[in-house]
Amino acid sequence: MSLYDVFEYLEQTFIGEAIRTSHWLFPVIEAFHLIGLALLGGCVIVVDLRLLGLGLTKQTIRQVSDKIRPYFLVSLAVMFGTGIPLALSETLKLLYNRSFWVKVTTLAIVLIFTFALKNPLIRSERAPRALMFFIGLASLVMWFTVAGAGRWIGFSS
Amino acid sequence: MRWFAEWLDTHAWSTALHESLFLYPWIESTHVLSLMLFVGTIFIVDFRLLGIAFRDVPVSQVTSRILPWTVFGFVVSVATGLLLFYAIPIRTYHSIWFRIKVVLLVVAAINAWVFHRRVSRRRTYWDSDAKPPVAVRLTALTSVLTWCGVIICGRMIAYNWFDCYKQLPGWLLFLTECAQDPSSP
Asked: For the whole model, what pTM was predicted?
């Protein structure tokens, strides 16, 4: 079974079908994907700014991270909850869309990076400041790459 | 106001920007990504004002440390937004979504003004409250909802359902002033 077969199969889900046949479902879900993006961006930026030594500097990195965490998780849920249906509605187009692959690859990397490296380092409260600075910078670059590549899916046909 | 859109439309740079292969998509993407910084940080500040995030951090600390970044995001959003309008002035001028978006931006601006000028005047009394007074929470809720509305309308501008060349019902013809547009049927 090739990747094409998988994507062709995914193209036929009833969710994708419903979105494809509707005039307004795709735009509306897309709009909520953007609201989720704003929330995700706020969460990521506030924590990463703190890692860079900016923003809420009177709190420790761990304090800022802990307080943002629930909102970050909610924003991820919104992004997946809206993003997956959007993808299911145009699966075969995405298979040949370079921006899509840049987006999902970077997304996978940044999620592993966040949950396996960044968050444990923050919780340990022992990582050197220079390392945390670099982690914050890398996180910002990767999340903005995900968002930018996501927007670019619509430009590259 | 239609004359202004028409005047912008005569600019060679407006057409060049609209038809550019990379510049327009780059400005458009920057506009979208700027909401991560602009609206994103507004959400976080609003959540503090609603008493649901950073409850043990004084409001003044959150606003003084976060809002400068919001302003930075605002500048990027406005600059790129103006360029997007400049690239497609007449269609955008008539867009019902653009018109609702502008109304919501005015609401958001008034709401922000009310918060900073009136509601915040007595901030010393509730600065450290986990849950600020109801007037404060009300402006925060208004802020969250209007910015969500701005995002939704902004996204919808791209769709042509209610463009002037379509058959529009009378009330939409009125709200969009499409009768002034030569492409109107």
From this structure: 0.96
